[in-house]
Amino acid sequence: MPKATILIVDDMPENIDLIKTVFINESYSFITAHNGHEAIKCVEKHAPDLVLLDVVMPEMDGFEVCSRLKNKKETMLIPVVMVTGLDDHKSRLKGIEAGVDDFISKPINIIELKARVASLLRIKRYTDQLEYAERIIFSLALTVEAKDHYTQGHCNRLANYSQLLAKRIGLSEEDINSVRRGGILHDIGKLAIQDEILLKPGPLTPEEYEVIKKHPEEGEKICKPLKTLESVLPVIRYHQERFDGSGYPDGLKGEDIPVTARIVSLADSFDALTTVRPYRDAFTKREALRIMDSEADAGRWDKHLYKEFKNLLEMDNIDFLVNSEVFETRGVN
């Protein structure tokens, strides 16, 4: 197992030396910073496994450093232990609001410090393992797309369409994240479908179509063991359901279909229509919407959601946004 890297942040060198001495018999490696700005740069450069952070420092105090780290996706999961002589309730509350994971009071209790650091590093290792497993799942999802050059870029576009629509209708950040991730993972169940069916250049037989219809359930099975993907499972399982109950695998109808799945379903259908297939040319945006208009009139789509999706497509920069690398919608209106 590789050594854990700990960043010690303190403006007093003697305090840094003291902490290093505490861990002299442990197999950790250390990097140091003497102020808040140095700390931020060290984290960005070295990605430590844990930060031991002093509170009172010139220019940028420990609360601000912690808040900045916890508000960035790349660093938010790094445990931060605040080493402080401030023992009042107000300071502790401020630290908790900034995202501090634990506190150690000065003068330092050596046994307590070692135990808390070891505990947080165990959690960090577990978190890293989950992230690694999740990255593998996302990579597998993209291999489905890579099998068929006709679907190149589909997952990326779908993730972007979906999160833009989710933000437009006012969903929470958690739900926006779910539709973005669901857009990438929605078809991962096709890994379980034979290539001769999945890549067939002509229309499918009824028997082959029944096999294809299993992919939402297969996708759910693949992703279910990962707790971090729990909120994405409804998107994966229900993205082929339709508002009138004509979809699959469960024949859900109306509001029984989770809104995150309804969003991805709309985007998936539109992108499929406007993409070349081996058995037909791509429809233009106007032609695709004409088809979907008639489907909405027949009750296949949630009319309110479909109206918002059509309005989304009128944005001047929609093509640029949708074809960009998958991005977060923060700041995009």
UniProtKB/TrEMBL annotation:
Matching entries from PANTHER family are given as:
CYCLIC DI-GMP PHOSPHODIESTERASE TM_0186, CYCLIC DI-GMP PHOSPHODIESTERASE TM_0186-RELATED
Which Pfam families has this protein been placed in? Answer: HD_5, Response_reg
Q: Which residues form the signal peptide?
A: none
What is the top-level taxon of the source organism? Answer: Bacteria
Q: Does the keyword Transmembrane helix apply?
A: no
Q: Mind telling me what this protein is named?
A: Response regulator
Against Gene3D superfamilies, the record matches this protein to: 3.40.50.2300, Hypothetical protein af1432
In Gene Ontology terms, what is a biological process of this protein?
Answer: phosphorelay signal transduction system
SUPFAM superfamilies for the chain: CheY-like, HD-domain/PDEase-like
The HD-GYP domain, residue ranges: 129-324
> 4-aspartylphosphate-modified residues are where?
D54
Show the PROSITE patterns listed in the entry.
HD (PS51831), HD_GYP (PS51832), RESPONSE_REGULATORY (PS50110)
Domain HD, which positions?
A: 151-273
